[in-house]
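note to self: dont lose this again. the chain is below, predicted strucutre after it. 88 aa total, dont forget to put it in the shared folder this time
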Amino acid sequence: MSPSFRELFERFEELNREYMVSRWQSGLQKEAARQEDALMAMLFLEALGVENPTGYYTLDLYPEFVESFHRWHRKMGMDTFPEPGFCC
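---
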C-alpha cells in the first residue's frame, strides 16, 4: 500500500522541521535560557527591594512607548489606565 499524499506531506514537513529547527535549536535554547535568567534576576531583585537596574537606562524610552502602552491597556479592556497621569 503506497502512502497517501497527506502522509507524504507530513513526512516531508517532519523532515523539513528537523532539518531547519535542529540547525538553530541549540542557539535558540541558549538564548531562551539567557532571557529567562535575565527575567528571573529582574523579578527577584525587585522582590528583594533592589532597584531595577534597567530603570535608569530605559527612562529615555518612555516617551516612545507611551502611545503603544495606551493601545495595550485599551486592548486589555481598561479604557483608562488606573494610575493617574501616566498616559491617559
